[in-house]
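Interim report, section 4.2 (structural modelling).
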Amino acid sequence: MSVNGAAQNADLKTAALRRLQEFISLDDQELSALENAVSCQRVYRRREPILRQGDRVTHVYLLIDGWVGSHTEVDGGSNQLSKVHLPGDIAGLPNIALVEAASSLIPLTVATVGLIPLKNLARLFETAPRLALTLFVNAQQERVMLMDHLAAVGQTDATQRVCALLMHFHRRLKLLRPDHRDLIDWPLSQEHMAQGAGLTSVHVNRTLRELTRKGLIERVGKSIRLLDVDAVSELAAFPDRRFVHEPSWLTSMERSHGRRVAAVSK
Amino acid sequence: MSVNGAAQNADLKTAALRRLQEFISLDDQELSALENAVSCQRVYRRREPILRQGDRVTHVYLLIDGWVGSHTEVDGGSNQLSKVHLPGDIAGLPNIALVEAASSLIPLTVATVGLIPLKNLARLFETAPRLALTLFVNAQQERVMLMDHLAAVGQTDATQRVCALLMHFHRRLKLLRPDHRDLIDWPLSQEHMAQGAGLTSVHVNRTLRELTRKGLIERVGKSIRLLDVDAVSELAAFPDRRFVHEPSWLTSMERSHGRRVAAVSK
DNA sequence: CGGAAATTTGAAATCGCTCAATGATAGTGG
DNA sequence: CCACTATCATTGAGCGATTTCAAATTTCCG
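Predicted structure of the assembly:
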């Protein structure tokens, strides 16, 4: 696909790392600390599990390119899609609190992934405290998104949930590439959407169909076009969160230059 | 209530801090670093908001005693209870990624809370990297619990969700005080339970009643007794997670003695 | 081109909701 | 300590959003 694989790869990596600087900008040393934590890089095919629920936890996964779903199997074989990871996300992080992985990581598209051994991750907390704090804030952001997801599934009807899904990805993609318009390249099957929204694929189908009939969206092949973003957003009842950017309590932290001295200790 | 308020308070604080050492034990210096981050301590009455959704984010809240609910209001006035905090939890953490608080923190009982200004929290990442890493792992654990919560609400029926709630608190209380038996002092109203489970209070009532009729639980005043823990656990379809304890990747991290030198830098 | 995966559609069933009213309990202030 | 009031629990009847089941198309991928 690429004329120059190496160059494209570098671009992808840069894009992925930009994602982490949503809260504070990191210096080169901090960025390379993260990059050096990656022990190896791999490309996974669609549906080829990166990690299976129940597996022993050994790594976390920096997603460099592609979409990856985090699926939790419940008791009777049904599945909950708790998160879809986009480039720049670190997937599998919640598992570090566990002995066995809580969810499977399955690529929804071809995916390029950097593997980070847990020990390397831990080391970042010593060597790059600002990066560590960024990862921490990032984890809290994930909690907010999960809370909103839960609120949508727990409190809203099918139309609202489907619209919430659409808006969720619309917004995240816009952050990822500012040139993103209203046509979304949509690798999620209706079954996936159903597993995310706590619905049946049958009902997701009917809901999408209804949205199409009302002229709010248009589906072209695997893509979805939002014809009326405001109306969909309205229907979604899904908050458009304002995440912090360079807040004083965060920026005032001194950068690490390897010269962290005893001044802070008693 | 207490003969010696100060002494009891110290006990409570100790208990709260123990909660953070689920993953690795911390040394005295690290524990006092956290304690020093608390700028002031306050007692809140039941229902007296500690923080309101939409408020500007200035602190996080170390819960020392009592139960505190995290409620997110959705669009049409309905509420999702995304988390109930028990002593030792740090409440309001997800908000640090946000400009305005995503959820309200409302005590379900009288609650004693230590307020931690954001700047003090950030400083811990410089002064106590092992504590910071503990907080990070703790955040990931919260994500796992939120994912399980989501899976329950999204994929299971009313009986399973109510049983999941019961088991959830049963297990958390057992960790908190090993002497805990099957009688749970239950400050949640059926309306609260409904908001947590994504159900109606009416339906929660019928479900509880049905569980009582089957002899699985017994309700005495505000308490609930699990008469058949195994059966309830079975019905819950709710995984009993094994969280890590002193894993090698975590324990191998060197303790901070304020003598962190340039060795780690390039 | 062939087979698997995904979408689409209808009809019937059901779980949980709504509405509405009554009864029980627990704080609160006099 | 009692009365008052707000909150909480309980119950019934009818309704409706979503599921289930099943089958026909269509699309995608190798």
